């Protein structure tokens, strides 16, 4: 591969050692680059309070509140270990991304960095892969929202809830980034409150015998009911893919870089707090839940929070957790399905990797065309709900895990190439460095390769690899036409 800091004409972009910006700001033949100054025309309206809660909310989704029930039934207490392992791997990914963002906090985040250090194709492929990943995840979340509302209103059609949710969230994103930030702040606060409440109540059960579960709760449930991996190591390992899906959204911090106040300060702060958040919200919650309730009592498709609250004897346990699940689904659709996808679409418009119309901003600094396009595509999920509500969730989540592994791997490889550029004097070093690089990069990439093998091994999840393979074929076929269109517009 040729040096990624050399464009198609062979003109080398010499980096300033004070800012890391190209000294030569001429437009490359690949199409217009995103504003290298960072904001790219966006309004830096997300403060530290919102940034922290977006970072927290991005790591807490339906994967923990609902999907953990299936994983517990397969892995038993060993699931806690896999959450710790996956959390450690994704912390490395985020440290790599944090170093790239403090080098240059661009609005296109890792897609722009991939373009700069891996070449134009990888910028194009990363942006569109991230877009399709979150659009399909957004479809899944609005599908889930319709299911949760049916708990209170059984006669209300699932697709109607999905459509209403999509319209409301799209309108909020179109108004301003500040409205998005406030929505995400409160969504995250509800999720955090639920988890902390579960931990405190569970500790009360364990320490003072509070509630109906007081006489049976014990930390010995973590090893005494058939062992740490009661269904065997193989079944335990197969839950790693479920665990990885639960962390989907951790990279959203990077997408907000162009609209964050003081990104050089707030981005490292948000990333450095990840181990504490992973430890509290994932490991802490699972340790308490599996001590209060034996793993044998959890069933696939049932929220572990519901099971624990019911065991303790808390009134309306299912209703409380169902509300939190609804919040988690709307949060994911809001932050990933609409906010992040709209920013990625603007990135492809700026860089000539898609229609130029995607590059525009509204008077409020919002990529309105991207928001509307993502919402329209996500509306396909509403149609799927109307046609086949029983299988909708399974249909539209197949691509999410494969897309996430692809994007996270690109971040790690981009960081490796950035470090090479720094050593060659072609890029300015960052003060926020990834620990242990390049060895930690290769360790995280090996972990993703291993999980990909597990996905291929399981016939139920293998379809994700088929879908992502077809997707990259389509990207490869479409790339020459996209470049030709970009040159025609320039």
Brief synopsis:
With 490 residues, the chain is an all-alpha fold.
User: Percent of residues in beta strands?
Assistant: under 5%
Number of helices: 20
Question: Could you give the count of β-strands?
Answer: 0
What do the pLDDT scores average to? 82
Stretches with pLDDT under 50, minimum 5 residues: 1-39
Q: How does this structure look, described?
A:
With 490 residues, the protein is an all-alpha fold. It is built from 20 helices and no strands. It has helices spanning 48-57, 62-75, 79-103, 109-118, 120-149, 158-175, 177-208, 221-224, 233-237, 240-246, 252-255, 263-272, 274-292, 304-312, 317-350, 368-387, 392-395, 398-423, 439-457, 463-489. α5 (120-149) crosses α6, α6 runs antiparallel to α16 and α18 (398-423) runs antiparallel to α19 (439-457). The two termini are 26 Å apart.
List the SSEs and their pairings.
Blueprint: H1 48-57, H2 62-75, H3 79-103, H4 109-118, H5 120-149, H6 158-175, H7 177-208, H8 221-224, H9 233-237, H10 240-246, H11 252-255, H12 263-272, H13 274-292, H14 304-312, H15 317-350, H16 368-387, H17 392-395, H18 398-423, H19 439-457, H20 463-489
């Amino acid at each position: 591969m040729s040096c990624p800091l050399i464009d198609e004409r062979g003109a080398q972009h010499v980096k300033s050692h004070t800012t890391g910006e190209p000294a030569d700001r001429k437009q490359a033949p690949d199409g217009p680059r995103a504003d290298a100054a960072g904001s790219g025309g966006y309004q830096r309206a997300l403060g530290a309070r919102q940034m922290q809660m977006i970072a927290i909310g991005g790591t807490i989704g339906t994967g923990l509140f609902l999907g953990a029930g299936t994983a517990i039934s397969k892995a038993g207490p060993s699931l806690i270990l896999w959450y710790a392992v996956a959390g450690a791997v994704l912390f490395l990914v985020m440290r790599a991304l944090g170093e790239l963002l403090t080098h240059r906090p661009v609005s296109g985040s890792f897609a722009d960095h991939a373009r700069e250090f891996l070449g134009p194709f990888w910028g194009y492929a990363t942006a569109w892969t991230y877009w399709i990943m979150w659009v399909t995840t957004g479809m899944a979340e609005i599908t889930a929202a319709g299911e949760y509302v049916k708990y209170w209103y059984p006669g209300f059609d699932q697709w109607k809830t999905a459509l209403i949710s999509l319209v409301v969230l799209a309108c909020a994103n179109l108004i301003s980034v500040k409205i998005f930030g406030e929505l995400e702040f409160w969504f995250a606060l509800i999720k955090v409150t639920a988890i902390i409440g579960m931990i405190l109540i569970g500790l009360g059960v364990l320490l003072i015998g509070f509630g109906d579960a007081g006489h049976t709760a014990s930390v010995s449930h973590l090893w005494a009911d058939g062992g740490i991996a009661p269904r065997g190591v193989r079944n335990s390992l197969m839950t790693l893919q479920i665990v990885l899906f639960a962390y989907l959204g951790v990279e959203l911090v990077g997408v907000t870089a162009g609209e964050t106040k003081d990104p050089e300060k707030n981005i490292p702060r948000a990333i450095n707090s990840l181990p504490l958040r992973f430890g509290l919200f994932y490991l802490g919650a699972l340790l308490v839940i599996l001590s209060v309730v034996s793993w044998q009592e959890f069933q696939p498709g049932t929220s572990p929070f519901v099971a624990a609250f019911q065991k303790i004897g808390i009134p309306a346990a299912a209703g409380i957790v169902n509300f939190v699940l609804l919040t988690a689904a709307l949060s994911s659709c809001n932050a990933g399905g609409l906010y992040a996808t709209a920013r990625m679409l603007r990135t492809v418009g700026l860089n000539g990797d898609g229609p130029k119309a995607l590059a525009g901003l509204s008077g409020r600094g919002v990529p309105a065309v991207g928001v509307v396009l993502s919402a329209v595509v996500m509306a396909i999920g509403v149609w799927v709900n109307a046609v086949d509500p029983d299988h909708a969730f399974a249909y539209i989540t197949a691509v999410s895990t494969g897309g996430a592994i692809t994007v996270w791997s690109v971040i790690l490889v981009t960081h490796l190439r950035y470090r090479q550029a720094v050593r060659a004097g072609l890029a300015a070093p960052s003060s926020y460095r990834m620990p242990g690089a390049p060895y930690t990069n290769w360790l995280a990439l090996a972990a993703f390769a291993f999980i990909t093998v597990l996905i291929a091994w399981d016939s139920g999840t293998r379809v994700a690899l088929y879908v992502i393979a077809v997707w990259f074929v389509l990207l490869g076929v479409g790339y020459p036409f996209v470049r030709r269109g970009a040159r025609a517009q320039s």
